[in-house]
Amino acid sequence: MATVIVNDRSHEIDLDPQPPLLWVLRDTLGLTGAKYGCGMGLCGACTVLVDGEPRRACVTPISTVAGRRVTTIQGLSPDRGHSVQRAWIAEQVPQCGFCQPGQIMAAAAFLDRHPDPSDAEIDRAMAGILCRCGTYQRVRSGQPPGGVGEPGMPPIAPAVANAVFVATGKPVRSLPIRLGT
Ligand code: FES
Ligand code: FES
Asked: Which CATH architecture has domain 83-179?
């Protein structure tokens, strides 16, 4: 057995057999915020913090976090009030949402150490978290609303939304299609 502190609560975890941290979080503790994507440390969907540092939980043996402080997206704040979560909501970053806990945890750890980063530093820090929906521009923000995936976009085929935006320079704001200002 090993003691693991997850979101400020201690848990006694059986080490035989020894599962990866992600399995313990999701299957044993019911904390399904960290996602299973590749299971090979490649996509970042499972990113959590261990003593404040981002770690890929799918390839982290549970024994290596014994006695250490693990933070999942559920433990980042009690009310989604962490500054990164508030920024994510304000910028309407998520699309399907699958990668977003990993994105947010990586961003929170990075901004903790680099409160005023450059765009290049942000790109480097976030590069390892893959997003199949392509939310990268919203993560970096500062871009004006435009094509599909931008704030205020109704559900519409990406090709149609982007074609309208390219042709008119205006985003689709409602359906049936009506051009925004
Ligand atoms: S699920 Fe862990 S890195 Fe992809
Ligand atoms: S929001 Fe869908 S994978 Fe990133």
From this structure: Orthogonal Bundle (1.10)
